Amino acid sequence: MTTLPTGRSFDPAAFIDTFRSYGHNGALGTRFVQHGPDWVELALDYDEKLIGNTETGVLASGPIFSLMDMATSLAIWVRTDIFRPQATLDMRVDYLRPATPGRTVFGRGECYRVARRIAFVRGQAHDGDPNDPVAHVAGTFMFLDGE
Amino acid sequence: MSLPPYADFLGLKLIMDAEGPLLLMPNSDAVLGRPGFLHGGAISGLLEIAGIAALQASLGDGSTRVKPINVTVDFMRGGRLVDTYARGRVTRVGQRIANVAIEAWQDDPARPIAAARMNMSLDRAG
């Protein structure tokens, strides 16, 4: 696990921890895995209550959307090193292949550009092999503090 | 038409009316995001389920499997902690691909809180 450089004020691991028993992310059971200067990786363990297709046992696409929304959102705060209220403006998710039933899905979100009002993000999700992703996302967030 | 376990996780209710399937997502802890607002991921989940339901209803029989290829969601307003509705509109059904547009709203259908477009792949039996 990557440790935070000194002077950093936003801690994504602590942030996720506070949401473990609360709200949508708590209900999904999203876990913090690791982060870098402009990216955050989260994990979503397989859970039968998140199945989208009962015949195949494949996870619904919605939980993967939520995982990537959260990972990319945290990536912005990690990159800017400050917590600012923000909201998703838009998000596109390509579902490259079904996640394999039983496997944990890992989602890595990256913030590659922060403008005055908007932050630009992208990311990928995989279920064990980063070179064989299950989803790819691109999106934008808007800052709500009216700077 | 039956909804998958994930729809139960979100607490969704399926309402069939004259215009087809309408999905209701009551407020609950499982759909809460930042304090005071719905989670964008839960709204997206509602939009996707409404999109799939609209497509399945338009296909009629249950012999065609539908699989999302991608989804693009625009968030227009913060979702308040009240009932949220969503309905999909099938814009085109081809032999292998279908396009669906979905909107979610709370009090007023004319003031959507989010909208999505989905491209779905069709696996026709036989």
From TrEMBL, chain A:
It comes from the Bacteria. The keyword Transcription does not apply. The keyword S-adenosyl-L-methionine does not apply. It holds the Pfam family 4HBT. Keywords: Hydrolase. InterPro entries: HotDog_dom_sf, PAAI_dom, Thioestr_dom. GO terms for cellular component: cytosol. Residues 57-131 form the Thioesterase domain. One of its GO terms (molecular function) is 1,4-dihydroxy-2-naphthoyl-CoA thioesterase activity. This is Thioesterase domain-containing protein.
UniProtKB/TrEMBL annotation, chain B:
Residues 36-110 form the Thioesterase domain. CDD domains: PaaI_thioesterase (cd03443). GO terms for molecular function: acyl-CoA hydrolase activity. This is Phenylacetic acid degradation protein. It holds the Pfam family 4HBT. The lineage of its organism: Bacteria, Pseudomonadati, Pseudomonadota, Alphaproteobacteria, Sphingomonadales. It comes from the Bacteria. NCBIfam families: unchar_dom_1. Keywords: Hydrolase.
